[in-house]
Structure formats: structure tokens, C-alpha cells
TrEMBL record:
Keywords: Cell wall biogenesis/degradation, Glycosyltransferase, Membrane, Transferase, Transmembrane, Transmembrane helix. One of its GO terms (cellular component) is endomembrane system. It is found in: Endomembrane system. It comes from Populus alba (White poplar). It is a multi-pass membrane protein. This is Cellulose synthase. UDP-alpha-D-glucose binds at S26, K32, E33, D62. It comes from the Eukaryota.
Amino acid sequence: YLDRLSLRYEREGEPNMLAPVDIFVSTVDPMKEPPLVTGNTLLSILAMDYPVEKISCYLSDDGASMCTFEAMSETAEFARKWVPFCKKYSIEPRAPEFYFALKIDYLKDKVQPTFVKERRAMK
């Protein structure tokens, strides 16, 4: 499916025809919606395989929680490393909590020394 979509909207030598996408994430109570889950959601969205100039992600914290604010500040800092890492190595799943929780030998098919080094830095 992704290959067909790519053929339809991404032609070599032409501007990307994919539509811009706005994604809204909302949260209210950090006790019911843990900031770690919200952060993983945002990181997964930001690391999507989509042109970076055509995707916008917004967070609405209707509870105005300082806990959520501080957690999202940390998430933004981590995103500077995580998003390029995901795109460079085609990481799946793109939410770090789930990526590191899976019991798969990610190093089996990745013999690049840079991948091993960068993956360790992500942990």
C-alpha cells in the first residue's frame, strides 16, 4: 500500500504532492493519561515516514498540568535525537517505549557500527 501511495504522490524531479497533515493530541489529567504515553504518541507522530515540512503536531493540555509540561519539554529534547534516528534506520515501531520493550534482536540484520552506537545512545 505504501509503495502505491508513494508512486502516486512522489515523483522524481517533481515536488511532493502529499497533502499537509495536522495532527492534534489532547490530554487532561496526567494521572489518567500518563505523560509517558503522551510523549510516546508525540514521538511516534513526529517520526512518521512523511515529509517533515508537511506534518504538524499539536498538543492540547486542557488540564494545564505542570507534570505534563515538564514531560513534554523532555520529550521535545529527546525528539531531536529520536526522530532522525528513526528516519535514518527505518525504525519500527516509532514510539521508543514500544521499540525498546520488544524482545527482538534488532542487531541481527543491522551490521552498521553506527546503528549499534546510536541505538545504545538512545537507550
